[in-house]
C-alpha cells in the first residue's frame, strides 16, 4: 500500500506541475521520496519538472533513482534517455533506450527515440568524416580522403557535400591508383586482383588469385613478407566465406608463422577448428587471444573470444564426461 502522506505530497506536486510551478513541484516530490524512495512515479515526476526547467543533469539523476526504485518502470528509461539526449550523450542515450526496450520491447516512445537518436548519431558521424576528409585533402592525403569519403557515403549515399568533395578527390585518386598498379609486379598484381574479386563476393576466384600470389612469393623467396601475410590472411577470409575450414586453418597457421600474435588469424583459426570439431585446439587459440593485452585485442574480439571460451569449455567437458 502506498504511504498516504507521500501520496498526498505527490498530489500537491502534481498541482504545482499543472500550474507551471516546477520548482515547488520538485520540492513536494522530494518530500514524497524522503518518505518512500521506492515509488518510481515520485522520481519520474521530479525528472519531468527538471526537464521543464532545462536542468538535464538533475533530470538524469532523478531518472536513475526512478529506475533504481523499479527496474520495470519503463518511463524511467524514457526520462533518463531524454536527459542524455539533451546532454548530447547519444551513446549513453541509446544504451538506456535498449535497456528500456529489454523491459518492454514494443514501447513506441522508446522505439521512436532510439530511431531518432541513431539518426542524429549517423549525421554526426557523417559530418565528422567530412571534416576529416577536408583535412586530408588540405594535407594532400588523397588516398586517405578517398577512403574517408567512401565511409561517409555508406552512411549517407547521395549527400551533396560528400559528392562535391568526392568529385574533387576521385579523379586524383584514380590517377594515383593507375600509376601505382602500373608499377606492381606480376605477383603483387595477383593479390590486387584477389582483393577486387573478394570485394565482388567472387570468393573462389579470389582464392585462385591469392594462391597465384602466394606461389609467386614462394618462388621469389618472399614467403615470410608482409605481402605473403596479407595474401594468406585474405585467402583465409575467402575460405571462411565458403566454409572450407581446413583451408582457413592452413592459411591462418601460415599467417601465425609470420606473426604469432595476429589476433584476426587466431580467432579465424579457432572458429575453423570449432567447425571441424577440433574443440581443444579451438580453445587453445581463444585462450591465447584472451591472454593478450585488452588494448591489442579490442572489446569486440575480447567479447567474442570470451563467449567462445565458455561454449568450448562446455563442449570439452561434455566430451570428457562421455569418455
Description:
- With 323 residues, this protein is an all-alpha fold.
- The longest helix is centred in the middle third of the chain and has 31 residues.
- The chain is flat.
Give the gist of this structure.
This protein has 323 residues and is mostly helical. The chain has 17 helices and no strands.
Please summarize the sheet with the most strands.
Answer: none
* Rg for CA atoms: 28 Å
Mean pLDDT metric:
96
Low-confidence blocks of residues: none
Helicity level: over 70%
Binned strand content = under 5%
Helix-strand sequence:
HHHHHHHHHHHHHHHHH
Structural class: mainly alpha
Task: Report the count of strand segments.
Answer: 0
Task: Give the end-to-end Cα distance, rounded to a whole number of Å.
Answer: 58 Å
Write down the oligomeric state.
single chain
The helix count comes to: 17
Shape: flat
Amino acid at each position: 500500500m502506498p504511504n498516504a502522506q507521500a501520496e498526498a505530497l505527490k498530489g500537491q506536486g502534481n498541482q504545482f506541475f499543472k500550474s507551471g510551478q516546477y520548482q515547488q513541484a520538485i520540492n513536494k516530490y522530494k518530500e514524497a521520496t524522503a518518505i518512500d524512495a521506492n515509488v518510481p512515479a515520485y522520481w519520474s515526476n521530479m525528472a519531468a519538472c527538471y526537464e521543464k526547467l532545462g536542468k538535464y543533469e538533475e533530470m538524469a539523476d532523478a531518472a536513475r533513482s526512478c529506475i533504481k526504485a523499479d527496474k520495470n518502470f519503463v518511463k524511467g528509461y524514457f526520462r533518463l534517455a531524454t536527459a542524455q539526449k539533451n546532454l548530447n550523450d547519444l551513446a549513453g542515450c541509446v544504451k538506456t533506450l535498449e535497456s528500456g526496450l529489454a523491459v518492454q520491447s514494443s514501447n513506441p516512445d522508446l522505439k521512436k527515440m532510439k530511431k531518432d537518436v541513431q539518426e542524429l548519431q549517423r549525421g554526426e558521424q557523417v559530418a565528422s568524416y567530412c571534416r576529416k576528409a577536408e583535412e586530408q585533402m588540405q594535407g594532400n592525403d588523397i588516398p586517405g580522403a578517398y577512403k574517408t569519403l567512401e565511409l561517409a557515403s555508406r552512411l549517407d549515399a547521395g549527400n551533396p557535400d560528400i559528392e562535391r568533395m568526392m568529385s574533387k578527390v576521385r579523379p586524383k585518386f584514380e590517377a594515383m591508383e593507375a600509376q601505382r598498379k602500373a608499377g606492381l609486379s606480376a605477383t603483387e598484381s595477383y593479390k590486387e586482383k584477389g582483393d577486387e574479386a573478394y570485394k565482388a563476393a567472387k570468393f573462389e576466384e579470389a582464392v585462385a588469385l591469392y594462391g597465384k600470389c602466394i606461389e609467386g612469393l614462394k618462388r621469389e623467396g618472399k614467403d615470410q613478407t608482409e605481402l605473403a601475410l596479407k595474401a594468406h590472411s585474405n585467402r583465409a577470409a575467402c575460405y571462411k566465406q565458403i566454409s572450407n575450414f581446413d583451408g582457413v586453418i592452413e592459411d591462418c597457421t601460415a599467417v601465425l608463422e609470420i606473426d604469432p600474435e595476429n589476433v584476426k588469424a587466431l580467432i579465424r583459426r579457432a572458429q575453423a577448428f570449432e567447425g571441424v570439431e577440433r574443440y581443444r585446439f579451438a580453445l587453445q587459440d581463444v585462450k591465447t587471444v584472451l591472454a593478450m593485452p585488452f588494448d591489442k585485442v579490442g572489446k569486440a574480439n575480447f567479447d567474442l573470444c570470451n563467449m567462445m571460451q565458455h561454449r568450448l569449455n562446455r563442449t570439452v567437458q561434455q566430451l570428457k564426461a562421455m569418455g
